[in-house]
Specification:
Layout (H helix, E strand, L loop, with lengths): L8 H6 E2 L31 H13 L3 H4 L7 H6 L9 E6 L5 E7 L3 E2 L4 E2 L5 H4 L22 H6 L9 H4 L4 H4 L9 E2 L12 E2 L1 H4 L2
Parallel strand pairs: 3-6
Antiparallel strand pairs: 1-2, 2-3, 3-7, 4-5
Bound molecules: iron/sulfur cluster (2 copies).
The site of one iron/sulfur cluster has 11 residues, from loops.
Length: 208
């Protein structure tokens, strides 16, 4: 996504919501449909045992993400693709006129900002209705996913980066490489809704 210069006042007036449904808990200052929170995550959990098993498999044969179509992957394989960066759990803003998206450093209220894990993954869709579940079918349409997202990379025919836990063999590598949101966010529970635009950041799409 192209980065933008300083937001002009006229643009601010027209800034509008992303396409997702506004959650019941949203504290948005612009009522009803004038502005919504951007779409959120998807597949932010992996079972560590599942991943370890898949990493063992990787050592002996060509890894599944290079040989299988997304639609042919098992649920465990699909879930293990998530690198745990949690960038997709950040609130995003969409320009009403241009459709351009911008990330903020505000995290979903359910995200544990220290571990980058969803606080209630099984019930996320109930607690956060605009949390979108990523599937092989919708991955191509979700243009708001960060460019570093493993699902987006594979959908675009690219390979996983060195810091992806499936490649590195280390759960921490995504954090150590500075590719996650860990330690860089504030919870939406702690933010004044009128300050959303003050929290726009570019690092989620800069890859660092
Ligand atoms: S952006 Fe992609 S890889 Fe990162 S947490 Fe979200 S679904 Fe997982
Ligand atoms: S509900 Fe969980 S998975 Fe969904 S955006 Fe929030 S923290 Fe992320």
């Amino acid at each position: 996504m192209a980065q933008r210069g300083p937001v002009k006042l006229s643009e601010k007036k027209h800034r509008k919501p992303c396409a997702a449904t506004q959650p019941a808990s949203c504290l948005c200052p612009w009522a009803s449909n004038q502005r919504k929170l951007g779409p959120r995550l998807t597949s932010l959990t992996r079972n560590a045992d599942d991943r370890n098993a898949l990493m063992d498999e990787k050592l002996t044969e060509q890894p599944f993400w290079q040989t299988k179509k997304m639609t042919d992957m098992s649920r465990e394989e699909w879930e293990s693709l998530c690198d745990g960066c949690a960038k997709c759990c950040l609130i995003k803003l969409e320009d009403e006129d241009t459709g351009e998206l911008e990330y903020t450093d505000i995290a979903c209220s359910l995200l544990d900002c220290n571990t980058c894990q969803c606080g209630d993954y099984p019930n996320r869709s109930v607690k956060v209705p605009d949390c979108v579940t990523l599937t092989p079918e919708n991955v191509q349409q979700l243009n708001w996913m960060p460019s570093t997202c493993a699902y987006r990379l594979l959908a675009n025919g690219e390979n996983l980066p060195w810091w992806h836990p499936l490649v590195s063999g280390e759960e921490e590598s995504v954090h150590l490489a500075g590719m996650s949101v860990r330690g860089r966010t504030v919870s939406e529970d702690d933010i004044d809704p009128t300050d959303l635009e003050e929290r726009i950041v570019t690092w989620p799409e800069q890859g660092k």
